[in-house]
Design goal:
Structural class: alpha+beta
Radius of gyration: 17 Å
Number of helices: 4
Strand content: 25-35%
Shape: globular
Distance between the termini: 27 Å
Largest sheet: 6 strands, antiparallel
Number of strands: 13
């Protein structure tokens, strides 16, 4: 398993070793010890979620209040999605920066997003099935969103599926109505970099 940090600090791409044979393929999709080496602390899993999306569906940008927020380890069990991490931590050196990982049922990569990061993805195939391992349960009173189409963030979404079929972003009413990054900042909704650092240090036992 290879783990590398993305352009967004606290977001990691995880690439498992695949063991194919005539029967199919085997892989270790999640290794707690390996992830702990990269993070500096164990991921305390509290909830697992699954979503199934049609091609073009965009979910996010979602985030939760820090602390405790919600760290996520995300995989695509079927189909393909472009999974996106956005640095929405006010005061971060990379505030507003986003990076992405292609999650699919071929390479079986995963992405880890630390507490305080914004998360979104776009489904690139029908019935794309995403599995999230989460450090905290869903708490609607602490959950927020930012428009994934905010030009200030500037996420570049694919315009065609892997098969070459044209697609365009399809959002829920809630995500369509979400504020821009600047609006969320003005409303005081965004995590603060220094507070996130303090929480990460607490998780690391420092």
């Amino acid at each position: 398993m290879k783990i590398r940090e993305l352009k967004v600090p606290g977001a990691f791409e995880i690439t498992p070793v695949l063991h194919p044979d005539a029967r199919g393929v085997f892989l270790e999709a999640y290794k707690a010890a390996e992830l702990e080496k990269a993070l500096g602390h164990a991921l305390d899993l509290k909830q697992a979620n699954t979503s199934v999306s049609s091609a073009g569906v965009v979910r996010g940008i979602h985030f939760a209040d820090v602390p405790p927020s919600q760290a996520k380890y995300v995989m695509c069990a079927r189909g393909a999605v472009l999974d996106i991490a956005v640095d929405i931590r006010v005061g971060s050196p990379t505030f507003g920066v986003w990076d992405s990982v292609l999650l699919d049922d071929v390479h079986r990569r995963a992405i880890y997003l630390a507490e305080g990061l914004g998360h979104a993805f776009m489904a690139l195939e029908d019935d794309s099935t995403v599995v999230y391992l989460c450090s905290e349960g869903y708490n609607p009173g602490r959950e927020h969103g930012i428009s994934p189409l905010d030009p200030t963030v500037g996420i570049v979404f694919p315009t065609v599926t892997p098969a070459g079929k044209p697609i365009k972003p399809l959002l829920s009413e809630k995500d369509t109505a979400a504020p821009t990054l600047n609006e969320a900042r003005e409303k005081g909704l965004l995590p603060v970099w220094e507070e996130c650092l303090g929480y990460y240090a607490q998780l690391n036992g420092k």
